[in-house]
Amino acid sequence: MAETALVTGATGFLGSAVARALIAEGHQVRVMARPESDKRNLEGIDVEIVSGDLSRPETLEPALKGCSALFHVAADYRLWVRDPDAMYRTNVAGSAALIRAAAKAGVGRAVYTSSVAVLGIDKSGKPADENTPVTLADMIGHYKRSKYLAEEAVAKAANETGLPVVTVNPSTPIGPRDIKPTPTGRTIVMAATGKMPAYVDTGLNLVHVDDCAAGHLLAFAKGKPGERYILGGEDFSLARMQMEIAGMSGQRPATISLPVGPLYPLALGAEFLARFTGREPMLTRDTLRMARKRMFFSSAKAERELGYATRPAIQGLADAVTWFREAGYLQ
């Protein structure tokens, strides 16, 4: 493992877990962050913070100077954006520029954090893997499209520069320090406060954020450059997920399952209002389109080749509820 590693996205949920995992193994960690970033997730940990921005290529190589490892976790993760071009500049162009800058700075190896969002969904309903067929046309919304294109751009930059890059595809991390919170974190907060009166019949793969972070370090140590590895946990229906959270929080679980179709007018209205408020809507047409598919995945490749292992997802939900309660999100 590297003596000094640069971690992008360490002010965020998954990135901060990766930084903490590196520190726990005795490595020096440098964090690249924008000056205006919320740095609460860095409190209490020994990291060097340097200024940098994926949308400003000139800031990247200086941030990487002296580092022998790169963990590129940062991404613009929103399911609705008023300015999609900004998302593509960060996720696609910014990621490619970072890989090129890392090669110039003498970084020896990198891990790029993609997402299961770019992978195919098995039509038979069984968990998908890294080789399930998929095309750009299958991507729903700008976030998924940008991450799909980013994975291609990173691979191209790695091939052109010769930098060994291993790609990981996290599923849905859950657990402590989800300060934003993520869309899944917002669902947990709603279920834990009894504000989720109904749910749609969908499913997702849940993984404890700390297990996912440990998978990043395994990918760095054992992963094959040019390969990608799903870092997932357990498949959960949304019905089961909100029922478990309600039980942990002393709330009554939602019992009404809503069909997706009738919710489209509500999503359209929420998006319309968001254009005036600038705040991400709680419901979007893209999230409804995604809800028609069960996002179930297999981590068998990572388990087999990296030694990846996870705790039960229910522990991740419990840790998330505890953290949200202690951080004041469940008022």
Which secondary-structure class do the elements indicate?
A: alpha/beta
Poorly predicted runs: none
Tertiary shape = globular
CATH superfamily of the domain at 4-174 and 205-233 and 296-311, called what? NAD(P)-binding Rossmann-like Domain
Percent range of helical residues: 40-55%
Q: What is the name of the CATH topology of the domain at 4-174 and 205-233 and 296-311? A: Rossmann fold
Query: What's the total helix number?
Result: 11
The total of beta strands comes to: 12
How are the strands ordered across the major sheet? 3-2-1-4-5-6-10
The separation of the N and C termini measures: 42 Å
Our estimate of the beta-strand percent is 15-25%
For the largest beta-sheet, the strand count, sense and barrel status come to: 7 strands, parallel
Query: How would you spell out the order of helices and strands?
Result: EHEEHEHEHEEHEEHEEHEHHHH
Question: What this model shows, in words?
Answer:
The protein has a domain at 4-174 and 205-233 and 296-311: Rossmann fold, CATH 3.40.50.720. α1 crosses α6 (209-222) and α7 packs across α11. The protein has helices at residues 13-24, 60-64, 84-105, 141-161, 183-192, 209-222, 238-249, 264-277, 285-291, 300-306, 313-326; strands at residues 4-8, 28-33, 48-51, 69-72, 109-113, 165-170, 172-174, 198-200, 203-208, 228-231, 234-237, 256-258. Helix content is 42%, strand content 16%. The protein is globular. It has a seven-stranded parallel sheet, sandwiched between helices. It has 331 residues and is an alpha/beta fold. The model has no long low-confidence stretch (mean pLDDT 91). α4 links the parallel β5 (109-113) and β6. The protein starts with a strand and ends in a 5-residue tail after the last helix. It contains eleven helices and twelve strands.
